Structures are given as C-alpha cells and as structure tokens.
Amino acid sequence: MEYISTRGSAPALDFEGVTLAGLASDGGLYLPREWPRFSEAEIASMAGLPYAQLAARVMAPFVGDSLTQEELLALCEQAYGRFAHDAVTPLVQLNERQWLLELFHGPTLAFKDVALQLLGLLFEKFLSRRQGNLTIVGATSGDTGSAAIDAVAGREGVDIFMLHPNGRVSDVQRRQMTTVRAPNVHNIAIEGSFDDAQAMVKRMFADESMTNRFNIGAVNSINWARLMAQVVYYFYAALQFGAPGRKVAFSVPTGNFGDVFAGHVAAQMGLPIEQLIVATNVNDILHRALTSGDYSTGTVTPTATPSMDIQVSSNFERLLFDVGGRDGSAMAEQMRSFDANRSMQLTNAQRQGAAGLFASYRADQDQTSRAMQWAYQHAGEIIDPHTAVGLSAALASELDPAIPMVTLATAHPAKFCDAVERATGVRPMLPARVGDLFAREEAYTELPGNYDAVRDFVAERATPAG
Q1: Which residues are known catalytic residues?
Q2: Among 208, 217, 221, which residue's Cα sits nearest to residue 315?
Q3: DSSP string spanning 370-437?
Q4: pLDDT digits (tens, 9 = 90+) for 285-310
Q5: Kindly report the CA angle at 446 between 440 and 451, in degrees rounded to 5?
Q6: pLDDT, tens digit (0-9, with 9 covering 90-100), for 390-437
Q7: Angle (nearest 5°) at CA 451 between 449 and 456
Q8: What is the Cα–Cα distance from 213 to 346, expressed in whole angstroms?
C-alpha cells in the first residue's frame, strides 16, 4: 500500500512512513494511492467477529507489509482490551429507526480513544525498529488531547506537546490532559481558538528550523493511521444491521471532518452506506460548503459543543481531493488560495462528487438541547451535546425509514455535565474509573497565541531526532 499527498509533490510513503510523518512535507495530507475494496462475500464473512479481529481484518489492506497480520491483531487486541465495554463500540436503540453507536467506552470517554489507543502502540512499534525519537505536536478542541496523552504517556521514544485554546474546553476535557503527570507530556494552553492552535501545528511541520532537529509527528486526524482506525466502527455497525445485504445511514457530529471522512473511506471499501450526514453546530463552514459550495471562514462562536467550534476543517481537503479528480497540483493551488483569502468556492466536480453520499445539517443551541431532551424522554438515554447535534440531524432526516439511521455518540455525557443538566435536568456522573479526576493536581503552561513562543517552548524541551 502506497500513500500520496493531496498536494501532489511530497514523496509517496508506506504505512509506517505516513504513521510517523503525519502531515506531508508539501503541506498536504496523505491518502492511499487507491482504495482497497472488499467483495460482498468478504464483508459478509466479517459478521460476528470480535472487535479486535474485525479491526485487523478491515485495516490489513492499509497496513500492507509494514506489519504482519499477527502483529496487527496483537496491537488491536492490546488497544481495545482497555475499553470498558466488551463490544468496544456498542449499538443502542432509541426507537424503530434511530440508533446510537457509543464510541466513548475508552479510557478518556471519547471517540478519539478508538483510534489513539492503537496509534500510540503503532508509534512505539515503529520507533523501536528505527531507534529514533518522535516529537508529537498536536492541537485539540477538547477530546483529541486527552486521548492522545493517555495513549502515549510514558511510552519510550515519544514526547507529546498538546495545544488547547485556553478557557475553551470543558473542565473534564482540560483535566484529562493536565492531570497526566508523565515526563514526556507537555500541555500548552494558548490564547485564541482551536483554529489558531491548529494553524501553529501545521506551521511547525513546515518549519525547517524544527524539522531539521526533530522528527515531528501528528496525532490529530491529519495522521492517516488515526482515520484508518475509525473506519472500523462503520463496518462494525453496518454488520449488525445485515451488511452487505442491507444499507445503513450515519449522522456524524463533526468539526474537523475526520470522523465522517472515515465513513467515506468505508463506503469506498464496499460498505453499503446510503448516506453520511455531516452534522455541525453554528460554526457551520462544512454545512455551507456542502450546500452552496462556499468554504469561507468566519469568527468562531463558542458553544456548548466546544469540540465542534472550528472554522477550518483539515480533513475536508482529503474529500475535495478524492472526489474532485485527485489532481494534486490543482488541490495545492486551491488550498494556497484559501490560506491567502480564508475563503474558496468548491469546484463543480467537488460538489457533484460529494453530493452522492453526503448530506449536511446545522443545529443551533435550541435544537441541540431539544435532541438531548428527546433522547431522555423517548428512550431514557442521556447524551452529550455533540452527540445531540448528530441526533438532531438524524431526527430531521427524510431518508427512507426502512434504512437504519445511526448517530455516532462521540463523548460520554459526563464530559459536558453542565450542558446536559441544563437540557435534561439530570447531571450525569463520571464513571468510577475516572471518578477521582477532580482530585488530581493539574500542570500546564499558558502561552500567548504566538507561533514563536510555542516553537521555542517545544524546542527547549523536545528530544532531538538523534
């Protein structure tokens, strides 16, 4: 399996190479040169597999020769052995048509664990072969940071520097990052938005003063391996409904477009997905892009769904490249224009290519609260506000009701207890396994929203490549 950049001029890499590289050297994102595809018989043969075995089967074509099948299965069993539910990503029924896919049974109570528990093990495996050191630099709107830190804390050969927007993540999200006291973990609270933090991370990948000294790696969903692991739970859910013999639709609350792009990948691999609903909050750049072709930034509005308070959705570039003709030079020019003007229009090919599988929906705060109320009143389920954005979209869908509609439940409701309590009157409690979170001591560094300050902080503390 060979990987190419969306911008066309970075060297092609194998799976090990893209896992450690993260962002491509030309500023693009890596994708497989071509999509592997399973036959209907191959998909049918996956029914009933335990999650780790299913994961190894689905991911094997992407891994290629970088791991043996036995190595991949062992890593999957280790990663998913830490989850609190034996099914790893269980389905919960809300009514005759609506379902939740619970993705929050990992150690940090968010869907990011599904990918990052595996990614941490992949880093350790590949770095042990190279006897090198990796400096992970990431930005988080809340859940990526805690999941990534949990996955790599104390691991050999890895330093992690995680940026979060100061005061713009929930107390639980912040504490899950800042109470991890491992020598290789560095938390940075920057003044500004998630988009500001993400822009600094991307700039660091292009900064030769840093890349010449350190092996800079990524845990954000710009890292292909993270997206690859998220493809698995689409297969898991669809198989429960009878795939490949029955279609299924998914509603996906999203900000950075990684989780829903994984659904696109599953569809390219042969999974019978009827529709993917891109569910956004009022920071609705993706909704505008998919409905009118207008991909232009505005001011980030803080909401009760902070993980979606994003204006620049990194993984959208992957979709535009894939459905728009896979022309790297044209994609590079389009993104250069966007970086300069903070706006662009999708091409006709991009709009038409996305229209077949994707729909979109925008939920404001009232709609989000009503969806939380609906889940509690009609099914006795407490859901977090991000999941509620997805459920609001699912309930509004006019698809054939015979097609199951699965909303991705992306976080445990206790991570956003204040918003849940306001909507439902019920204050969700943290699971016992993280119940002492608020008794632990925090440690993080506050920095201005200034690239030089962040770069210097990382350079002073990271381990050189060697």
Answers
A1: 112
A2: 221
A3: HHHHHHHHHH-----HHHHHHHHHHHH--S-TTS-EEEEE-B-GGGGHHHHHHHHS--PPPPGGGTTG
A4: 999 999 999 999 988 899 999 889 88
A5: 140
A6: 999 999 999 999 999 999 999 999 999 999 999 999 999 999 888 788
A7: 115
A8: 38
